[in-house]
Amino acid sequence: MTSVVTRSEVLSSMLISSWLDPFRSRFSRRPGSRTRTHRRRSRMSTAAELLEDRTLLDGTQVFQQALVGFHGDDLVGKDGEMSSIGFDLTLADHEFAAHVENGEGVFEPSNDLLQLHGSDVLVQATAVGEAGELVDSLGAMGATVTGTWGSSVSAMVPLASLDQLAESASLRFAAPGFPMTHAGSVTSQGDPAQRSDLARSTYGLDGTGVVVGTLSDSYDCADVASDDVTSGDLPTGIVVLQEEIGCSSGSDEGRAMMQIIHDVAPGADLAFHTG
Questions:
Q1: Host H or E run for residue 125
Q2: How many domains are there within the chain?
Q3: Which of 100, 103, 138 has its CA nearest to residue 122?
Q4: What is the DSSP string of 213-242?
Q5: Does any domain span residue 42?
Q6: What does the pLDDT look like over 203-244, one tens digit per residue?
Q7: What is the domain range of residue 245?
């Protein structure tokens, strides 16, 4: 099972490790080449040779390879040969290749949010134009299409075919199909607009362990906050430090603000004080 390292740790090691230079030079892109599968397998062997006494690729080397595959040799921008499938799938591709190379047992990706079924991974893809050509391409690489809508395609793609997906001329972009969570009967449009939904699904960040305080006119002058808790638009256990005295002009703007906060950070504890 490969170890997990952070991107900053890997970037630092790549800058200070002189032995990595010849290793990275072997990753240079060859425009017009369509033989990535053979090239990737061969570079796995090359990496193992360069590591001399290290007989198995560990998580650091695999992560380095994925960074180059996504960002390119200069590690700047997103122009690597696998950039069209995003970093998460690029890393999964390299981890699975190392898993096969190392002869390990059950494949366990470092990103436990990936939706795996056997050796297939759930992918959400966007086609160049209509979805038909991409659907055909996915079928040819052994993927099972689970749904289409306009130019969007959902499919279970073999991990061994992710490099083929990255090469597909009919693919605009692809990303893992992550489980999505929503809070309440209505979710703020600001949630996807600021990509906090992706932060939750990708990194598992939902505000747990954080207390968010709200200052506004009032919280529950209308006496319907319990309905929002029942519908899931607000969490239980909200701490109201002080409500507007007399509720003479309160519009419960504070409660509306807290509904938005709960959409973005459903795991956070909430508190209110009139202000």
A1: strand 120-127
A2: 2
A3: 138
A4: EEEES-SSTTS-HHHHHHHTSS-S--EEEE
A5: yes
A6: 888 999 999 999 999 999 999 999 999 999 999 999 999 999
A7: 190-274
